[in-house]
From TrEMBL:
InterPro entries noted in UniProt: Carbohydrate_kinase_pred_CS (IPR017953), CARKD (IPR000631), Ribokinase-like (IPR029056)
GO molecular function: ADP-dependent NAD(P)H-hydrate dehydratase activity; ATP binding; NAD(P)HX epimerase activity
Lineage: Bacteria, Pseudomonadati, Candidatus Omnitrophota, Candidatus Danuiimicrobium
Gene coding for it: nnrD
Organism: Candidatus Danuiimicrobium aquiferis
Keyword check for NADP: yes
EC code: 4.2.1.136
Protein's UniProt name: ADP-dependent (S)-NAD(P)H-hydrate dehydratase
Biological process according to GO: metabolite repair; nicotinamide nucleotide metabolic process
Length: 288
């Protein structure tokens, strides 16, 4: 069965008597002063990918502006540092809230503020619910990657090659064979699903599974594209897919939306928001 058929069978069919709670409560910890757009992209992507409820945890000062851009998401104001990033005072608030959530997405636009990074590490290592860790969520473990071996919950890491090297060391993997090899080694060693982004994105599982994505185009090499992918994978986790399936389906749909957008707008003009706009067409195309 090809991936399009798997997506159709596992994701696109909904019971007539279902409700929003059946499709996952996703908590997105993202954003900081100057990087609020990451919250918007991740949240809208999750909503457009079928998440039942999306809550965005952000520094309190961002809630007003973000609420005007995210009518369908719930805002969770959090204590912030002087730099406008999530502070350690947010830990008990987030910890309590996560008890009612199905998925934690962490990283987009959080900044590399040291206090915020300590918050991120603590929450990730404590989490009992499936997670997607991206961007500054990954950067929080720079020089401390062994801590990731203590993760308790099913987890998807979504590094681009630069983040991969910063986190796990070595040279930047080049060529399809080396990318597959490195992604699989890390996945098995750390017992997480690894999404090594790039041309022909690689998805590797701790069980030795490998998926090489064939959708996508160079126009997607633009700021915010990774935030959109985080939102998509988070939504799929919330719909009870396994971490490996959520990641494989996520990169496929992400790339397909990018291909449809590029066909309409051209690769040069593509922006991350276009990927979200074309998600409905991507799902419709797969449903046929």
């Amino acid at each position: 069965m090809n991936i399009k058929s798997k997506i159709r069978n596992k994701l696109l069919s909904r019971k007539t008597d279902s409700h929003k709670g059946d499709y996952g409560r996703v908590f997105i910890l993202a954003g900081s002063r100057g990087m609020s757009g990451a919250c918007v992209l991740t949240s809208l992507a999750a909503l457009r990918s079928g998440a039942g409820l999306v809550t965005v945890g952000v520094p309190a000062s961002l809630c007003g502006p973000l609420a005007r851009r995210l009518a369908e998401a719930i805002m969770k104001p959090l204590p912030e540092t002087h730099d406008g990033t999530v502070s350690k005072k947010a830990i008990p608030i987030i910890r309590k809230f996560l008890s009612s959530q199905d998925v934690l997405a962490v990283g987009p636009g959080l900044s590399q503020n040291s206090e915020t990074q300590s918050v991120v590490r603590k929450l990730i290592l404590e989490s009992q619910i499936p997670m997607v860790i991206d961007a500054d969520g990954l950067n929080s473990f720079k020089g401390k990657s062994d801590l990731l071996k203590n993760i308790k919950a099913p987890t998807v890491l979504t590094p681009h090659p630069g983040e991969f090297v910063r986190l796990f060391g070595g040279q930047k993997p080049k060529g399809d064979f080396e990318r597959r090899k490195r992604a699989l080694e890390i996945s098995i060693e750390y017992k997480v699903v690894v999404v090594l982004k790039g041309h022909h994105t690689v998805v590797a599982s701790p069980r030795g599974e490998i998926y090489i994505n064939q959708t996508g185009n160079p126009g997607m090499a633009t700021g915010g594209s990774g935030d959109v992918l985080t939102g998509i994978i988070s939504a799929f986790l919330g719909q009870r897919l396994s971490p490996f399936d959520a990641a494989c389906f996520g990169v496929y749909v992400h790339g397909l939306a990018g291909d449809l957008a590029a066909k309409d707008k051209g690769e040069i003009s593509l922006i991350a928001g276009d990927l979200i706009d074309f998600l409905p067409k991507a799902f419709s195309k797969m449903a046929k």
